[in-house]
Design brief:
single chain; mainly alpha; two-stranded antiparallel sheet
């Protein structure tokens, strides 16, 4: 069964890379096959889906739809355009802005919020939004490792290492992973500037957008604040879907306001229709497939290879964890991978009688950034490409990787080197 599951898994990911238009249906088909042939028992299907992520994406999409309707993204686009000399700098500024936001809220939520700004800039300048949205997605993934609330993998690490929000900034008397990520962001920003070096079209801003309804912006700000506050609640005292429920609840508040206070029921319908069902279907299906892969022990088998290859050499095991995590996370979702590897890393550290922090941080850097190498390696990438698809832009795997691979190499190498010198 393990070999059959691995074969189906490999074929699915190959098809996802070759046929980007049909990603959601390909993943759904693979998930159905996994359940039908018994790779993942029927009773575990709902458990395999991360409902917190699904609810967060759905709720955020609704809030962002209201946010877009308020014209606030257009105003933000005007502000950036007014400060930047050309398209190249505008794209990099957007990517850095997305990274800052992503350090404090979910990567997918960040893409959903910042992408409309890129779309508005592209419309105003009459250029393709593809490069900007890809840059936003990869930058969001990078900064997801910066804080406890930046990404699900960070939350998993915080739980395993008993780290709180502030520990990501300073830990055990040394600078934390937040500053390592910022160094990586600076290095990768120069990479983006080089990639977009030919986009020197000057920016001339004429009319500025006027915003009259700030309530959706308050909803968005409230979501950020509540997600940060929720991170301080002990895991044992809150629902697993807490973050998702926060996003959905705020979306419902926004819809109720549209329906009863603004007397605009058509806006409620259009907001619901703006929720990207295909993206949600793709992610839910991938959760089921990865659940099946984990069920038959493939992820566990991969994890054991680390110990067999590296032996007792700390530098070797650290290097292997970082770069194997980059490669694996480029093709499979990093959440189940990190969840599986955290106890393995702790066991390795115990056997070697070393502080596990360096291995924890290496795992987080590798697994979080590895997703930037392919269009299906991270949920933020899938969300960004979903937005582009709705705008009529089908992005090939090659187009994505022209930005994703050099960005990933620059960010991973800088983080890999800095973590080793700080924690050795």
């Amino acid at each position: 069964m393990e070999q059959i599951a691995l074969g189906i898994f490999a074929v699915m990911y190959l098809c996802l890379l070759i046929f980007p238009k049909y990603r959601s249906y390909i993943a759904l088909s693979a998930a159905i096959v996994f359940v039908v042939i018994g790779v993942l028992p029927t009773g575990k299907v709902l458990q395999a889906i991360d409902w917190n992520v699904i609810l967060m994406i759905g709720g955020t999409m609704g809030i962002v739809s209201l946010f877009i309707e308020s014209k606030m993204p257009s105003l933000m686009a005007d502000f950036i355009l007014d400060k930047m000399p050309n398209v190249k700098w505008a794209i990099v500024a957007l990517a850095l802005f997305a990274g800052i936001v992503s350090a404090f809220i979910d990567n997918v939520a960040t893409v959903l919020m910042v992408a409309p700004v890129a779309l508005d800039i592209a419309r105003k300048l009459k250029i393709s939004p593809v490069n900007a949205i890809i840059a936003i997605a990869v930058s969001s993934n990078l900064q997801g490792a910066a804080t406890l609330v930046g990404d699900t993998t960070s939350i998993l690490l915080g739980g395993a290492a008993k780290m709180n929000f502030l520990d990501f900034f300073f830990y055990q008397g040394r600078i934390g992973i937040f500053w390592v990520v910022q160094f990586g962001a600076i290095v990768s920003a120069f990479i983006l500037l080089y990639i977009f070096r030919k986009d020197n079209k000057p920016i001339h801003l004429t009319d500025k957008t006027v915003v009259t309804d700030y309530f959706p912006s308050y909803l968005l700000g409230g979501m950020v604040l509540l997600l940060i506050l929720a991170s301080f609640i002990p895991e044992a005292s809150k629902l697993p879907e807490t973050n998702g429920l926060i996003c959905v609840t705020l979306m419902v508040i926004g819809l109720l306001r549209e329906a009863f206070f603004k007397k605009n029921p058509s806006r409620v319908v259009s907001t619901i229709l703006e929720i990207d069902v295909q993206t949600i279907l793709l992610l839910a299906s991938l959760f089921v497939v990865i659940g099946g892969i984990k069920e038959v022990g493939i992820i566990d088998s991969i994890s054991k290879l680390f110990v067999q290859f590296a032996g007792d050499n700390l530098f070797a095991i650290y290097t292997l964890i970082v770069f194997a995590s980059v490669f694996i996370s480029a093709f499979i979702d990093n959440i189940p991978y990190v969840a599986t590897m955290l106890p393995v890393v702790a066991s390795i550290a115990t056997q070697m009688s070393v502080d596990p922090t360096i291995l924890y941080f290496g795992l987080l850097i590798g697994a979080t950034l590895g997703g930037n190498m392919t269009p299906i390696g991270a949920s933020a990438n899938i969300a960004g490409l979903g937005i582009l698809r709705k705008e009529g832009h089908e992005v090939s795997t090659g187009t994505f990787m022209k930005i994703g691979i050099p960005f990933t190499i620059a960010a991973v190498l800088s983080g890999y080197i800095l973590i080793w010198f700080i924690w050795m």
